[in-house]
Design goal:
Blueprint: H1 15-30, H2 36-43, H3 55-63, H4 70-83, H5 89-110, H6 121-136, H7 143-148, H8 160-164, H9 167-187, H10 192-202, H11 206-214, H12 241-257, H13 262-269, H14 273-281, H15 288-298, H16 302-327, H17 334-338, E1 353-356, E2 362-365, E3 376-381, H18 387-400, E4 404-408, E5 424-428, H19 435-441, E6 451-455, H20 467-480, E7 482-489, H21 498-503, E8 509-512, E9 540-544, E10 550-554
Parallel strand pairs: 3-7, 3-8, 4-5, 4-6, 6-7
Antiparallel strand pairs: 1-2, 8-9, 9-10
Helix pairs in contact: 1-4, 1-5, 2-3, 2-4, 4-5, 6-9, 9-11, 12-16, 13-14, 15-16
């Protein structure tokens, strides 16, 4: 079927609404003249798997001479802008919002909201209000059918006689309906479940749509109008949103099974419904005592109780880690950090970063390369995150502990500045390391005089001639007094060769501004949304020492 332009409504006496309608038709043309059903599919479905707007409502938006509800218009504009390849859909939405507001002002200027002269407000108001209420509010016992009524009814559903009445009478009825719905919404305000059901039934009726448009800036709550996600409770994403999301989904699963509203939860747990709602809508961590009370009143099985509290512990740990990260200094020099170390630290202890303590202070943290599951430590991060600086800090700390180093620096790096220091046995600057050369450099290593290989840009050397020596080091380093510290780009440091695969067995390392979730696999820990994806910040990282806990640290420079 060939796509066709749609017939435009006659709007000669409403120039602002006519301009809005013409621009809307042009936007559809840019998108390739999609059909009404195609536009419906572009808009999509809501959380309950219902169409946000049906195809008849789409046709009405383009072809009827009435000003369309903004909520419906917004989702159609966004869908068409994205389908038409517009660079900024938000800009198109804002442009149409200006046109729509001009049409609103035009409508207000042409109509009066006062009752007609010579008639009593009681008679007109009661009569029209009853008519509108019969159409736009649910009858008792129709809960199931009302939940299915999520697609916007055709615009011709209204009573023809209402259309034929004087504008003043119709608008007065609209004001009465507005008062009825607002009063009902306010009375249900503290039971969000009931409010959601009520608005879900009436929000797409013709009378409610006009009321919402007229009261756009004055309505008591931006509850989900027209299937558009509410922004009433919109707050910045929590840094622990993944952990909190798991907790909330688990809690909501048990709540849904019991069909508890937030008011029911208040009655069952003694925790106010307002607090439950705020924890949900603000993506926040509930009080642990509230979850214990919920578990007890819901009669959860032991395994469900343990899971719920385990998810709470994970979310709490992620939030605490972020809190400690925010309290860290933006920078710290090597001498300051070295002074924070434990004086009794082992000889092969390496300084990786400065982090917070439980009492609110600062301390130096790092791995003991003489113990663990493998004699290795990994520094990973994207380009520009400060990997080489972190590696140089680790190397300086090992030299300060009288350990010996073998440096492998195939690219320019601060490590090269340490080549002439006492304790540096060898420095390889080429993009390959010979088997015999590395074996000779490590030959003097012993438990009393350990030798640590510090390797920058490891992805460049993954196929070097000395890879068998490196694999042997990772297998027998604890006995021979050798260890390996390496750094590389997180998206390229993927174990494709045996010696790199063995590095993962150490289950420890430093992630600098990690951008992808698999980065945690490099150091043996899972990383969630609370850690990944933040802007690249040189000198800030996440340290894992093999205990399953990610610690926020500032890397000394």
């Amino acid at each position: 079927m060939v796509a066709q332009p749609w017939k435009k409504p006659e709007l000669a006496d409403q120039p602002d609404l006519k301009k809005l309608n013409e621009e809307l038709h042009d936007l559809r043309l840019d998108a390739g003249l999609p059909s009404a059903r195609t536009i419906r599919e572009l808009v999509g479905k809501d959380a309950q798997d219902y169409w946000i707007v049906n195809h008849q409502a789409v046709l009405d938006t383009f072809q009827k001479p009435d000003r369309p509800p903004w909520g419906r218009l917004e989702v159609i504009i966004r869908a068409l802008a994205e389908a038409g390849g517009h660079d900024d859909a938000d800009r198109e939405v804002n442009r149409f919002k200006v046109l729509w507001k001009q049409a609103v002002r035009e409508t207000v200027a042409q109509a009066s909201v006062q009752p007609p002269a010579g008639s009593t407000s009681t008679d007109d108001g009661d009569g029209n209000d009853a008519a509108d209420q019969s159409q736009d509010t649910p009858k008792q016992g129709t809960t199931d059918s009302s939940r299915r009524a999520t697609e916007e009814p055709p615009a011709d559903r209204g009573t023809p006689t209402d259309r034929d009445q004087k504008p003043s009478q119709f608008n007065y009825a609209e004001e009465s309906l507005k008062g009825l719905i607002l009063n009902t919404a306010q009375s249900l305000w503290y039971d969000k479940d009931a409010l959601r059901v009520f608005l879900g039934v009436v929000r797409r009726s013709e009378g409610f749509a006009k009321m919402a448009d007229a009261a756009e800036e004055r309505r008591p709550a931006n509850a989900t109008f027209y299937g558009v996600k509410s922004r009433e409770f919109e707050v910045p994403y929590s840094p622990a949103r993944m952990e909190l999301g798991r907790l909330h989904r688990c809690l909501d699963e048990h709540r849904s099974k019991r069909k508890w509203s937030f008011t029911d939860m208040e009655r069952q747990t003694g925790v106010s419904s307002d607090r439950w709602i705020r924890w949900y809508t603000h993506d926040a961590l509930p009080d642990r005592e509230a979850l214990v009370g919920f578990s007890h009143m819901a009669g959860l099985q032991t395994e469900d109780h343990v899971l719920l509290l385990g998810l709470w512990d994970a979310a709490h740990a992620a939030l605490e880690a972020q809190k400690r990260s925010a309290m860290l200094p933006s920078s710290v020099n090597f001498d300051e950090a070295w002074a924070m170390r434990d004086p009794a630290a082992p000889k092969m202890w390496a300084l990786a970063g400065v982090g917070g303590t439980k009492d609110g202070g600062l301390a130096a943290y790092g791995p003991d390369l003489s113990s663990g599951t493998a004699p290795a430590f990994t520094v990973a991060g994207p380009s520009g995150s400060g990997r080489s600086t972190a590696l140089a800090t680790i190397a300086r700390s090992l030299l300060a502990s009288r350990s010996q180093l073998v440096l492998a620096v195939p690219r320019p790096s601060p490590l090269r500045e340490l080549a002439e220091r006492d304790g540096v046995v060898a420095c390889f600057e080429q993009d390959d390391i010979g088997h015999d050369e590395l074996e000779e450099a490590l030959s003097a290593a012993s438990a009393e005089k350990p030798v640590i290989v510090v390797l920058d840009d490891a992805e460049v050397l993954e196929e070097c001639d000395a890879r068998r020596v490196l694999r042997n080091l990772l297998e027998h380093g604890f006995d021979e007094g050798t260890a390996l510290v390496l750094a590389g780009e997180e998206d390229r440091l993927r174990p494709r060769y045996p010696w790199l695969d063995r590095v993962k067995r150490a289950h420890r390392g430093l992630l600098l501004s990690p951008q992808e979730r698999p980065a945690g696999d490099l150091i043996g820990v899972k990383t969630g949304d609370s850690v990944i994806g933040s802007p690249i910040t040189p000198g800030r990282g996440w340290l894992h020492l093999g205990d399953g806990i990610l610690m926020a640290v500032t890397v000394p420079s």
